[in-house]
Design a protein that fits this description.
By secondary structure, the chain is of the alpha/beta class. It has a domain of 98 residues. It is built from 11 helices and 12 strands. The strands form 2 sheets. Strands 6-7-8-3-9-10-12-11 form an 8-stranded mixed β-sheet, sandwiched between helices. Strands 2-1-4-5 form a 4-stranded antiparallel β-sheet, with helices on one face. Helix 4 packs across helix 5. The longest helix has 18 residues. The radius of gyration is 22 Å and the shape is globular.
Length: 356
């Protein structure tokens, strides 16, 4: 991995307090390298967006960060603990060092201000020394950078298509050349053509500007095409982490395998599609042990009582980690092969009456 730009250590985030708390993110750790594209995937409600907003320190009540540390490694100075920032220091950090492209551009953009006014607001706040002419020139550059004609600076959000609104959100995030951009499901509700255009634009911009990306989606197939590394979340925890090629070639966690085989391939030979039985658990009442065990076709007794730890699943690939007892030599003699996981999913699907 390249030099780290962001380090997250044992981050836990709750909604509510004490016995009424919902544990949305639990003991999450990862490192984002300079220029890295990290994909964060999982079903709805697994804690992806909460994790992202916690990293940016923009959570509001009733959300609260109960433990952890988030370090930003910028330049040659000492690392900055983002969670320790507040007031003017936090406002200065946002957009300058870290920016967000929110899930719904229509809601993220101000509906009563033109694009020009919203871009001007960023620069008058963070670059007060810039003249109005310089700001307008930069605004034109930003729109051209994301493929929007400069005459759209006069437009209001409702006058733009969904794809153009999302591009405008990306332009705002790029305004101050931040080191890190968090993208929270930026292609949700867009047609496949608009999705492809926006993702191609992001790839080009990242190559040119060398910023790091945390890309959140429930569509694992997108990450297998775009990301350098992939983190898969379930019930508030990261259950698998590794290089996208390794995850695609041999997903270690049964949940990751289920996600990968929940959609048909667009190219190559036909593959069996299994799906994952059941629904994600209620975060207010998680099952004992591994939270995935009620849905897992390979669960055994230890899965119902002991919480698995995220660690290397294969000594030959130390950078690929899985939180699964199947790879604990003290609990299971041999780790499962991909064929073992496929067979277990196939049997489970037949029991549910699915054609496989």
């Amino acid at each position: 991995m390249s030099d780290p730009i962001l380090s997250v250590h044992h981050l836990s985030i709750d909604y509510g307090y004490e016995e009424d708390a919902t544990h949305a993110v639990t003991d999450v750790s990862f490192t984002l390298g300079r220029g890295e594209f990290l994909g964060l995937a999982g079903e709805s409600g697994c804690g992806k967006s909460t994790l992202a907003y916690g990293v940016a320190n923009i959570l509001r009540n009733p959300a609260n960060i109960v433990s952890g540390e988030i370090l930003y490694h910028g330049g040659n100075a000492a690392p900055i603990n983002i969670l320790a920032l507040s007031g003017a220091a936090l406002r200065a950090f946002r957009w300058n060092e870290l920016a967000i492209v929110f899930q719904s551009a229509m809601n993220a953009l101000n509906p009563v201000l033109s694009l020009r006014a919203q871009i001007r607001d960023i620069f008058t706040t963070h670059r007060p020394q810039m003249s109005r002419k310089e700001i307008d020139q930069r605004a034109v550059e930003l729109l051209q950078m994301v493929g929007i004609a400069s005459d759209r600076l006069r437009s209001f959000p409702h006058e733009l298509s969904g794809g153009m609104r999302q591009r405008a959100g990306i332009a705002l995030a790029l305004a101050l050349n931040p080191d890190i951009i968090i993208m929270d499901e930026p292609t949700t509700a867009l047609d496949v053509v608009a999705q492809r255009e926006i993702l191609s634009e992001m790839i080009r911009l990242r190559q040119n500007l060398q910023f790091s990306v945390i890309f959140i989606t429930h569509d694992l197939s997108l990450l297998l095409e775009l990301a350098d590394n992939v983190a898969i979340m379930y019930a508030g925890r990261i259950v698998e982490y590794g290089d996208r090629r390794n995850v695609y070639a041999h997903a270690r966690h049964p949940y990751s395998y289920g996600l990968l085989h929940s959609f048909p391939p667009l190219r190559g030979p036909a593959k069996k599609v299994y799906g994952i039985a059941g629904s994600p658990p209620d975060l207010r009442a998680l099952p004992q042990g591994c939270a995935f065990h009620p849905r897992c076709p390979m669960a055994f007794a230890d899965c119902q009582s002991a919480l698995p730890i995220l660690k290397a699943a294969d000594p030959a690939i130390p950078a690929q980690h899985a939180a699964c007892h199947l790879y604990d030599a003290a609990r299971r003699a041999e780790p499962p092969t991909e064929e073992d996981i496929a067979a277990a999913y196939s049997v489970n699907a037949k029991r549910r009456g699915m054609r496989v």
